Amino acid sequence: MTIGKIIDGKAFAATLRDKVADGVAGFVEATGRKPGLAVVLVGEDPASSVYVRSKGKMTVAVGMESFEFKRPDSIGEEDLLDLIEELNQDERVDGILVQLPLPKHIDEAAVIGAIDPAKDVDGFHVVNSGLLATGQEALVPCTPLGCIMLLKDELGDLSGLEAVVVGRSNIVGKPMAQLLLAESATVTIAHSRTRDLASVVHRADIVVAAVGRAEMVKGEWIKPGATVIDVGINRIADGEDGKSRIVGDVATAEALAHVRAITPVPGGVGPMTIAVLLRNTLVAAHARAGLAKPADL
Ligand SMILES: Nc1nc2c(c(=O)[nH]1)N[C@@H](CN(C=O)c1ccc(C(=O)N[C@@H](CCC(=O)O)C(=O)O)cc1)CN2
């Protein structure tokens, strides 16, 4: 039995961060200032706090300015919108990111819609999703852009390949499908109501699993030689000692016998998310300064 390749997202992300650091040095030389990223965290969700801390550290590590804004769960929507407006006007800030999820009493769409699209380094604003959908230059959501980078690195030209995206979220599934379409793949979006998901997935040369359900995509669903990108990060109880571990949306151990290549969880897509965020911030900084974006990004 042959075993598929494990795609090392951690190593790819480290190389991307090095390229961003080089690009930042060039930007500082050209403009006399550092690119700046503002991250807004509402509440104290432990996972979100870890991601925000990590974003701050990596922002500084590539030579950018990091601005962190922590607000309590109880913040009102108007106050959050006022903060966003301040950041929109702040010349030191090239990128604004509001860590998701937000507390239930805050309208996520209203907050994202208040971010200046030129500073929307998450690529979630409708202006950026519209630009992406119509094939124009846009700030693109970090996780799907990271997935495309890994796929192109593994497969080269994606043109004509059959791709199935499992999941239809605005953050991953929909932009992922748009990016694959832009690469001339033949794209299907499957979701919780899709009939006979196993046979839909079995058609695919590329499977992107982004449903948020632990190991839902089974190994036998995968067409031999397919490439699988696992976006899921699901914490599950492991054994009797009460400890937990993280698994993806794909049953990786089973899938390895079928795939050409697969991203692991952890260490696959996750690390790409923050590396692409830094890349997007540098791209936004160049655009705001009227400079062309560095060629290798
Ligand atoms: N405004 C945003 N909110 C959220 C986003 C986003 O892109 N923008 N994505 C996720 C969280 N996220 C970054 O914000 C993120 C998730 C996972 C990882 C990561 O590196 N994961 C590791 C495992 C981590 C662990 O052990 O818990 C991995 O997969 O190897 C980075 C960033 C939701 N919110």
TrEMBL record:
Entries under InterPro entries matching the protein: Aminoacid_DH-like_N_sf, NAD(P)-bd_dom_sf, THF_DH/CycHdrlase, THF_DH/CycHdrlase_cat_dom, THF_DH/CycHdrlase_CS, THF_DH/CycHdrlase_NAD-bd_dom
EC number annotated for this UniProt entry: 1.5.1.5, 3.5.4.9
Function of the molecule: Catalyzes the oxidation of 5,10-methylenetetrahydrofolate to 5,10-methenyltetrahydrofolate and then the hydrolysis of 5,10-methenyltetrahydrofolate to 10-formyltetrahydrofolate.
One Pfam assignment: THF_DHG_CYH
One GO MF term attached to the UniProt entry: methenyltetrahydrofolate cyclohydrolase activity
UniProt cross-references to PANTHER family, sorted A to Z: C-1-TETRAHYDROFOLATE SYNTHASE, CYTOPLASMIC, C-1-TETRAHYDROFOLATE SYNTHASE, CYTOPLASMIC-RELATED
GO biological process terms on file: L-histidine biosynthetic process; methionine biosynthetic process; purine nucleotide biosynthetic process; tetrahydrofolate interconversion
Native organism taxonomy: Bacteria, Pseudomonadati, Pseudomonadota, Alphaproteobacteria, Sphingomonadales
Associated pathway: One-carbon metabolism; tetrahydrofolate interconversion
Subunit-structure text: Homodimer.
Keyword Ribosomal protein set for record: no
Catalysed reaction equations from the record: (6R)-5,10-methylene-5,6,7,8-tetrahydrofolate + NADP(+) = (6R)-5,10-methenyltetrahydrofolate + NADPH; (6R)-5,10-methenyltetrahydrofolate + H2O = (6R)-10-formyltetrahydrofolate + H(+)
Record keywords: Amino-acid biosynthesis, Histidine biosynthesis, Hydrolase, Methionine biosynthesis, Multifunctional enzyme, NADP, One-carbon metabolism, Oxidoreductase, Purine biosynthesis
Gene: folD
Domain Tetrahydrofolate dehydrogenase/cyclohydrolase catalytic: 7-122
Family stated for the protein in its record: Belongs to the tetrahydrofolate dehydrogenase/cyclohydrolase family.
Organism of derivation: Sphingobium limneticum
Protein name: Bifunctional protein FolD
NCBIfam families tied to this protein: PRK14186.1 (NF010783), PRK14188.1 (NF010785)
Domain Tetrahydrofolate dehydrogenase/cyclohydrolase NAD(P)-binding, first and last residues per copy: 141-287
Binding site for NADP(+): 167-169, 233
GO cellular component, one term: cytosol
